[in-house]
Amino acid sequence: MTYNGKRILLGVSGGIAAYKAAELARRLVAAGAKVKVVMTKAAQEFVTPMTFQALTGEKVAAAMFGPGSEPLEHVALGQATDAIVLAPATANLLGKMAAGIGDDLLTTILLAATKPILVCPAMNCEMWVHPAVQENVARLQARGLTVLPPAAGELACGATGYGRLPEPETILEALAKLVSHQDLAGRRVLVTAGPTHEDLDPVRFLTNRSSGKQGYALAKVAWRRGAQVCLVSGPTLLPAPHGVERVDIWSAREMLDAVLARFPESEALLMAAAVGDYHPTSRSEHKMKRGSQELTVHLTQNPDILKKVATLKKKQVVVGFAAETRDLEVAARQKLEDKGLDLIVANAVNRADSGFAVDTNEVTIIGRRNLVVRLPLLSKEEVAARVLDQVAALLPPREGGGG
Ligand code: CTP
Fold first, then answer.
1. Which of 130, 197, 229, 283 is most buried, most CB within 10 Å of its CB?
2. pTM for this one?
3. For residue 286, is it within any domain?
4. Looking at 178, 201, 220, which one is the last position of a domain?
5. What is the mean pLDDT of the chain?
């Protein structure tokens, strides 16, 4: 969705990680972007233009002059695009950019560019920490360019340290922000996700089928749209979304503490977590042994996090999620009232393609003053975008006059 029809200029400079740029180009095309590749002369020593041409379906631009070059391409290419990504950006390219040098097609395009630029440096770890390189990076950041620092790991030269080109997934996420509308710029958004675990003994716990996917999608999309996101997450198998602060919790009571600590400074809370309603009244210190045919476990109710939060609410927009197997809208509206919410996202969880653990969801967003938005089956990221549209509409204007 984010990349559908977006024009991305991919600048490839001459480092060994140039081969990874081919995979990045493929992933961008698969995500719906129209990709134009510009290569430096040195990059062509590592990968041929033909590789990128085959992956993107577009002629690769590589020379200012001579056969195949177009007049004024150096001006047009950096402007007729939605964003520019430089991957890999070598120490040499960073130096030229910082100094304002335009001595080939890519560096000249960058001087004439008017669109957001994501720089993904990749090089030997000693080169990366060299003061000249660090000063150049700082200069580029001060000019408003986004720099995605290299990842740590084993490098092509055999050394281990910071210098690797981040995975395509991470670059795609960082770039997604540069092509997204920043309607949540600077907003502090708190999201909860996943299940909670309620311990019976050191090896057993009560939980539910939540995978965390909807909450993680909300955190991801809110970050792309400019928000500062804190994600309070129950145990899930999902990687932390790029740019998001993740706070890991185990039980409902830990989630309560984490949410209460962060709620006062937040502007919106999206409670997508499937919070366990009960915990075992006592937790056995040692592993429980098999005993008689039947076992009775006593449970005590967990605190209702949203109800507690409602008592502290000032101007925050508070959103609940209602997972129901019947009477969806009636039950959800009841929860909206009982928990003092601004919005509730009602979610049928008795279908194979909607609710827990799948990538799609069919929800109805219900709000105050008869707001009812019934959505078709969508990806969880699309659902997240529609929920955040409603949140953005309810947020009070930013202090200091911003939108
Ligand atoms: N919720 C919460 N604290 C709890 C239980 C739920 O904050 N102890 C939140 C969930 O994160 C969700 C909303 O309340 O945003 C509705 O959760 P749901 O489990 O559907 O509602 P319950 O109030 O637990 O009602 P029931 O399980 O009886 O349907």
1. 229
2. 0.93
3. no
4. 178
5. 94
